[in-house]
Amino acid sequence: MDFSAYETVLELRRYTLRPGRRDELISLFEREFVAPQEAVGAHLFGLFRTPSSPDEFVWLRGFSSLAARVDALTAFYTGPVWRRFREEANATMVDSDNVLLLRPVVRGLASPPPGSGVYLSFGEAPAAFAVFETEPGPNNFPQLPVRTDGPFMVSFSRSPSPGSESLEATSRSLLR
């Protein structure tokens, strides 16, 4: 499957969690939420711990279009898996509204260069393998808020740059 199509619309989601509950959410997320979201048309590129923030979970969800985004999110969030596990997931979170809705400037999440380490930068990073900017279209799934205080530019690279954040891939993360 060509996952590059799922870079058309990207959500960068940064959750602040209750102290000490990150691994609990990651376990639930990987066990219950990855496959059902992908089955309805989302693609989860990356699931990450942020070593510098022990109570943060960062993840990337891509879609082939804004229309595909609303279809996938509607199917997932009205479906049986979310209904069954939402209270358990939400109990781990302090804030799940730090979300950027982005579009590609430079594609590359689907086929990052060889190497290890993933670094997130706000702005264009040297040697970035993927660069995204704020999606100018409206949030077509308002049940999940996205930030409107942009515009933003977000880069992913294999090496650190000034101000970048190291992301530590979880076991189910495709981006490593």
Automatic annotation (TrEMBL):
<dbReference type="InterPro" id="IPR011008">
    <property type="entry name" value="Dimeric_a/b-barrel"/>
</dbReference>
<feature type="compositionally biased region" description="Low complexity">
    <location>
        <begin position="155"/>
        <end position="166"/>
    </location>
</feature>
<keyword id="KW-0560">Oxidoreductase</keyword>
<feature type="compositionally biased region" description="Polar residues">
    <location>
        <begin position="167"/>
        <end position="176"/>
    </location>
</feature>
<feature type="domain" description="NIPSNAP">
    <location>
        <begin position="11"/>
        <end position="104"/>
    </location>
</feature>
<dbReference type="Pfam" id="PF07978">
    <property type="entry name" value="NIPSNAP"/>
</dbReference>
<feature type="region of interest" description="Disordered">
    <location>
        <begin position="155"/>
        <end position="176"/>
    </location>
</feature>
<dbReference type="InterPro" id="IPR012577">
    <property type="entry name" value="NIPSNAP"/>
</dbReference>
<protein>
    <submittedName>
        <fullName>Quinol monooxygenase YgiN</fullName>
    </submittedName>
</protein>
<dbReference type="GO" id="GO:0004497">
    <property type="term" value="F:monooxygenase activity"/>
</dbReference>
<keyword id="KW-0503">Monooxygenase</keyword>
